[in-house]
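Entry for the shared binder. Reason: the reviewer on the internal report wants the predicted structure included alongside the sequence.
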Amino acid sequence: MKKTTWLKLVQIFLREQAIFFYLTISGLVIFYVVFNLYQLEMEAYWYATGLFLLFFVIMLMVRFSQYIYQHKIRQQILSSIEHNWQQLESPESLIESDYQEILQSLGKRCVELSTQLKNEKQESLAYYTTWVHQIKTPISVMQMLLQSEDIEEHRALSVELFRIEQYVEMVLNYIRLGSNYNDFVFQEYNLNTLIRQSIHKYAAQFVHRKLQLIYKPMDITVLTDEKWLIFIIEQLLSNAIKYTYQGSVTICVTEDKKLTVADTGIGIAPEDLPQIFEKGFTGYNGRADKKATGLGLYLCKQAAEKLGILITVQSEPGVGTVFTLDLARKKLEVE
């Protein structure tokens, strides 16, 4: 909402009242001419003119105060237009009445479209939630079949199947974060427990890529949403594994509740760093990989903002990348 200065308000008001100034000046000039033509006493003219101008200034000041008051009322309505769009003052002219009818009609239409969109999003979320749960069944069956015989071909297929499962989960999380659906449940959690869940999920990936995992547990409790914090950690681990061809991935937690995921991978180009959290941005590494969606880090950023977590990144090409989650940036309280 754009705020207008007092000087600007005065200028706008005077410009809107210009026609009354012109009429007033014209009337005074006409009376002056008539008094002169009939050779009337000019003293009476100047006396009447003085009284008229005094009355005109007083009325102008009263009108300006009403003008400012009405402006403030409209600004208050504008600040929460979604709820107050029907609270406009009674129209003072036919033009205002016509405009208010237009606004009322547009407001009702917006409410109808908003309700329709909300219902469609809820239906879409319900569909994709069902779809994700249904698709997990054949994925689990295929995983069991591939684990029945430990051969290189089955291990390679298991890796690809794991990636399919990741993309399926990403679809659901993308829909949830982009909708009005709120499934955040804040509680106190042991951070080590959440990290171990993420590590367990990616254990096979570390083995397959022959990467070393370095993690020293710390007994730290955080107030967060379990599911979404695990999602963020898993996405960071997924990226670390994807772009690290040799070396290690290190998970570190400090006493001031900062969690870092560092790798010895290919790093991120300096020109790409400011954009890595943007929707659909893949950067040089993503374009070279040909499989990047540009959604993983975007969803991490969106989820982190809703959890009150500050996520930052430092990287050097050829050396590695470090993502940091500041879990103590905002003080949250359990309701």
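Summary line for the report: The chain has two domains: 6-89, 184-335.
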